[in-house]
Specification:
The protein is an alpha/beta fold. Helices cover about 35% and strands about 25% of the residues. It is built from 7 helices and 8 strands, in the order E-H-E-H-H-E-H-E-H-E-E-E-H-E-H. A 6-stranded parallel β-sheet has the order 3-2-4-1-5-8. Strands 6-7 form a two-stranded antiparallel sheet. Strand 6 and strand 7 form a beta hairpin. Helix 4 packs across helix 5. The radius of gyration is 15 Å and the shape is globular. It starts with a strand and ends in a 7-residue tail after the last helix.
Length: about 160
């Protein structure tokens, strides 16, 4: 099975993920992939404690995610969560392959522009998405499974700096 959904969501594990995506895809494991959070024992305990019967949540580095997906989690139904687009690119560079990247929530920052009501892209976000698009990753922007996604590939300004 492997990665059924790779998602960027600043809020990480929350209702849209647990009530929307997990049952829809039959997810049994959520991997939160974030090098910085792994080193925070409070965040790690908090996130991993959100698991439930039939749903395990693990906080790992990109390198650990690659190893786990190639062995222990090979037959699991996995949702991979990233806190930001940068973390998704970092995971890809570490060898974590995914064919689709879902943008669920990206908070607005100074100078960012809205793609959807919950996804705002800065110039650096767009550059990082361009890297993934050039590698063949399809990028969608949907908060929940029933949402329609704009054509993110057309909306991202690759190679254009303002």
């Amino acid at each position: 099975m492997g990665v059924l959904l790779a998602r960027v969501d600043n809020r990480l594990v929350h209702g849209q993920v647990l009530v929307g995506w997990v049952p829809r895809l039959g997810i049994d494991t959520i991997l939160v992939v974030d090098r910085k959070l792994v080193d925070d024992p409070f965040q790690k305990a908090l996130l991993e404690g959100l698991g439930a019967p039939g749903l395990r949540i693990r906080l790992v580095t990109p390198e650990s995610a690659v190893l786990l997906l190639g062995s222990e989690l090979r037959d699991r139904r996995v949702l991979v969560l990233f806190a930001g687009i940068r973390q998704a690119v970092e995971a890809w560079d570490a060898g974590l392959a995914f064919s689709v990247l879902n943008l669920g929530n990206v908070h607005p920052t100074q100078g960012s522009r809205g793609l959807t009501p919950s996804v705002y892209l800065s110039a650096s976000d767009e550059e990082e998405l361009c890297l993934l698009l050039c590698r063949g990753v399809r990028v969608e922007a949907r908060a929940v499974p029933a949402d329609r996604s704009p054509d993110v590939g057309m909306a991202v300004r690759c190679g254009v700096r303002s």
